[in-house]
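User: Sequence in, structure out. Go.
Assistant: Echoing your sequence, followed by the C-alpha cells.
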Amino acid sequence: MKNVLIIDDEKSLLFSMKEGFEPYKKQLNILTAHDGLEAVEILESTSVDLVVTDLKMPKMDGFEVIAHMSTNHNTIPVIVMTAFNTPEIESKLQKNGLVTIFEKPVDFDDFVKTVLQTINSDDNGKLSGISLSSFMQLIQSEQKNCLVEVCANNKRGYIFFSKGELIDATFDGQNGNEAIFKMLEFKEVQIGLKSLPQKKIKRRIKTNLMQMLIEAMQRADENQKTEKTNNKNNEPSTQKIIKKEAKKVSNKESSDNNKNTHSNEKGTENMADIKKSLDKFKGIEGLLAAGAFTPQGEQIAEINPGSVNIEELGALANDVLLKAQKATENMGVGRGQLVHIEAPKAHILARCLNESTDFTATTTGRAHVHMVVVIDQEGNIAMTKMKLVSIIKEIAEHFR
C-alpha cells in the first residue's frame, strides 16, 4: 500500500480526488491536506510515497511545500497542479526531474495514469538534487513575490523576486548576475522560501531569467571545454561521450524495431538529407550551430561549427518558443512561428513548422518540427531568418 498526499485548498477537489481513486484502494491510500502547514504535519508523522500539490494556497503555499521537501524529504516525488501552466515550464521541469505538472482542470484519467507510473517507478528520489533553475522558472510562471534562500557547499545565498522577475541576488561575496551564475553552478542545493523584506530592494539584475539560464549554460559549456583542453585523457568526459553515442544507438534501434531493411535504409537516408539541409546554414556569417528538434525539444540532427551545447540550448529555446505560441494564440493573433532571443554572446532563433490545426498537437501525416539556429552577435540575422524559412520546409518533408 502506497501513501499519496494530495494538497489543495479546494475541499470539493479533494473529495473528488479521493472518490476517483476508490477503484485503486488496494494499491493507494489517499491522504489529503488543505494547506501546506497541514501537509508538513503529515509529512513529519507519516511515510509518504508521493506528494501532489496545488501552488496557490493560504497559510503555506505549494512553493513553500516544495522548498521544505527539498531540505527534509528530497526523495519523495512531486506532482504539481496549477491553473497557470505554460509549455516551457512543464518541459523544463520534467526534463530536470523536479516535478510533473498538471494544468487545472485536471484530466483525471491522465492524472491517475501518471500517479500509478510515478508510484511504481524504480526511479525513486525524483526530487533529490532539486534544480534551482527549474524552481526559479516556476516562480516566474506564477509571478510570485518572494525571497529564495539557497544553501550550497556550506554557503548561503539569496535571490529576490518581484512579480516573478529577478531583482537581485547575493552569494559568497558576489551580487546581481554573478551571484546567480555562481549558485547555478551547483547541481544540488537546499532551497528555502521567505517573504521579501519590507525595505525596497535595489534592482541590480536587468537580464530576464531565460537569458540568465542560457548564459549560465554557455559558461558551463566553456568550463567543460577548458577542462578537456587541460586534460585530454579526462575519463569522465570520455564516459560522457560514450554514453551519448550509446544513447543515440539505443534510440535508433528502438525506432527501427519491427521495421524491414528497406525502412532502416530509408531512415538513414532521411537523416543524411536532414544533415544536408542543415549544412546550408554554413555559409551564413557568424553561424555557431543549428539543429532540428522534435516539438518536445529532443534533438534530431545538428551542425555545430561553434562547438556550443546545441542540445541543451535548443531545449531551452524550444521552451521559449512554446510559451510564445501559447501567448499569441491566447491573444487571438494566431500561432507564433518564430522567436528571436538576443543574449549577451549570441542570437538564438527558434522556429516551428506545424501543419496541424492545433499548435500543441502532432497529427499523423502532417509535419511538426522545430529548429534552432545560434549565431554570434556580429552574425547576419536577416540572412539567417530567410534561410530558416526555406530549410525548415525542406526538413519537414521527412516528417509527414
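User: And one key feature?
Assistant: Residues 94 and 100 are 6 Å apart (CA to CA).
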